[in-house]
Design goal:
Low-confidence stretches: none
Number of domains: 1
Mean pLDDT: 86
Shape: rod-shaped
Number of helices: 1
Helix content: 25-40%
Distance between the termini: 111 Å
Number of strands: 8
């Protein structure tokens, strides 16, 4: 009597190996796509987080701007803001009450090298020392524009500022962010 041979033939082994390789390749592709999507999602969360932080910082400061009655900061008497139109990259300057020093100081937000920077003078003039970076190197500001309305010395309108920002990162296409704020202090 011949015994039961329970081993696999060469063909069965090759077929099983081929099926295993095909399943493994498919799973590898699924894992690869999942990792790429996770990188994109993380990058998007980072860009939104930094965008919100940057806009919140700018908004908070601009809402508390004071009218420059001397014109030393913004360059025109009785104006709240001065926007330097740089085409793609604007800057905004305004008079700011510094609670730490309990004095008025001139402040400016501008973009340099794709990063948002904050400049703060030692007094009410627009003589700024080096700026402090607000955004990280993983976050690139492609454009920043400020549109100010209601800031003429002779109007009776409350100043409003629209901020337009185009941002991107390594793994994400550029996105546009826009917000409009009004000054909290009455423009009297």
């Amino acid at each position: 009597m011949i015994g039961n041979n329970k081993s696999f033939t060469l063909i069965e082994t090759v077929v099983a190996l081929g099926i295993f390789i095909a399943i493994s390749a498919g799973l590898g592709e699924v894992i690869s796509v999942s990792i790429q999507n996770q990188i994109k999602i993380t990058s998007m969360q980072n860009i939104f987080s930094q965008s919100v932080f940057s806009l919140d910082k700018i908004e908070k400061e601009l809402r508390m701007a004071k009218k420059d009655t001397t014109g030393n900061c913004v360059g025109t008497i009785n104006r709240n803001f001065s926007v330097v139109d740089g085409g793609v990259l604007d800057s905004i300057t305004f008079l700011y009450y510094d609670q730490d020093t309990t004095s008025l100081r001139c402040k400016k937000f501008a973009v340099e090298g794709g990063r948002l920077k904050e400049f703060l003078s030692l007094d009410t003039t627009s003589n700024f020392p080096a700026g402090v970076e607000i955004t990280s190197s993983s976050f690139l500001i492609n454009s920043l524009n400020f549109i100010v309305s209601g800031d003429a010395p002779s109007d009776n309108l409350q100043p409003k500022i629209t901020i337009l920002m185009n941002v991107s990162s390594t793994y994400l296409n550029p996105i546009n962010i826009e917000t409009t704020i009004s000054q909290r202090r009455l423009d009297l």
